[in-house]
Amino acid sequence: MLLDRPIARERARGSEAALALERGVPLIAAAVTLLLHALANPHYGFFRDELYFIICGRHPAIGYVDQPPIVPLLSAFSQAFGISLFALRVIPAVFAAFSVYVAARLALELGGGVFAQIVAAMVTLFSPELITAGMRFSPDTLQVWLWPLIALYALRIAKGLHPRWWLWVGFLTGVAGMAKYSVAFFIFALIGGLLLTPQRRIMANRWFAGGVLIALAIMAPNIWWQVAHGLPMLQLLRNDYGKYLMEWPPLPIQQIIVMSPLLSIVWIAGLVYFFKHRELRWLGWTYAILITIMTALKAKNYYPAPVYPILIAAGALPIETWASKRPAWKTAVPALILLFAIPSLPFVMPILPIQKEVAYQQFVTRAGNIKFHVMHVKSSATPIQYFADMTGWPELTQTVAQVYNDLPDADRAQAAIFTSNFGEASAIDLYGKEYGLPPALSGNNNYWIWGPRGYTGNVTIDVNGDLKTDLKRFKSAKIVTVFHNQYAMPYEDNLPIILCRGIKTPLPKLWPQLKDYSYAFKEL
Questions:
Q1: Domain limits at 376?
Q2: For the chain, which terminal residue's Cβ has fewer other Cβ atoms within 10 angstroms, N or C?
Q3: Residue at 78 is within a domain
Q4: Are residues 344 and 458 in the same domain?
Q5: Is 519 part of any domain?
Q6: Residues 47-104 pLDDT 10s
Q7: pLDDT at position 1, please?
Q8: pTM of the prediction?
Q9: What's the mean pLDDT in 227-253?
Q10: d(CA 194, CA 163)
């Protein structure tokens, strides 16, 4: 058994102070993580998806076109006392701390000591895809905590914990599913890993069945909503399938890149460690099955990210064993983790002023011949998409408000504001109240579900529209201004603001043609 390892035996004979330190490492690591993210996260502005989550949450529902309800509801709650980037971004900071805590506890559960916990915590904290999940609020924010926590309880059950804890696993799975559907792939892979090994026996009981029922019961309302609305999430995935993906290298190799080539040494060591130990091999198969599924489905390269704290925790153990024979490395390894992490921090945390972030990105592009954008961008002065889509939203709203407020009273009373995507619509809805703007309309994702909201469309301000299309739909259409944002992605720069009058087909009748279930915005 793993707990027979020499390090574990030595720990069992250790002093009370040493044991207290060992148990305290996860809490200390979590506190450091929380502090780092709380200080670094609330800069630049709301990411386009964060704006959308807030507005969706202000329309409480058990389901949305493109997501389950937990993230929208938490996002809206964070803004209950006014618009606050800090209030929103502290949520991913908390979940990042939970993730680091669980990674350290996994290392402890596997038989690691203080050093293994420190390595597991540091690599989990600083791995680029994991730190990004803790930097901005997204459905992945909860997954990087919940997947490792599910694995921790499954590991304990495999080691002899009473199988009634499957009920707790079922609850965690249900919560994860109400944040992002991808947990289904992880659970499928975990069950597959167990079935391929002697540990399959831990599922042969009523408690496991009870856990499955609890997970399904929690997710059932959202599943029902999706079915009742024609499975819009599947429609969206089909519409976006294969768009803006890194085609080469293959997804398994991409994982080394996005998790940092140097820090990936730890999770790769963890994968080897799992397969090397018979009683842990099911966790190795879990990863193998998960990455195979995601490769076959052409998943985006950040989709498997929540599984890595599990592998990182395991990889910390052989590193601890190796370093225990080389005392100098007990200081060198944490220092190297920091050294490896620092160069990537400006790309995963908004810690530099945006101008300096762009300059740093240009320097790295030239020095390493690295491509930061999957899609074409107008210049090397465009920040990476995560940061570019945090800029310009208040300014866009102000530009639209100027057009709206310049209308004659009769026109303004019936004017609708229509946008090309949910990011623009959500920005106008969040910031527009200050200018007296009406609710924004869009055919994109859940905005299409909300419909035309009683507007005929006879007077429409079309944000980022197409003049040729508007001239077909209206008796008159004119570009009254163009919005420019020097840091924007192509689909959010040089946006025409078109004033349209005399709609030929009333908006409610036209609405079915405007449905756009997609994340792949048009590229100019």
A1: 354-388
A2: N
A3: yes
A4: no
A5: no
A6: 999 999 999 999 999 999 999 999 999 999 999 999 999 999 999 999 999 999 999 9
A7: 37
A8: 0.91
A9: 83
A10: 14
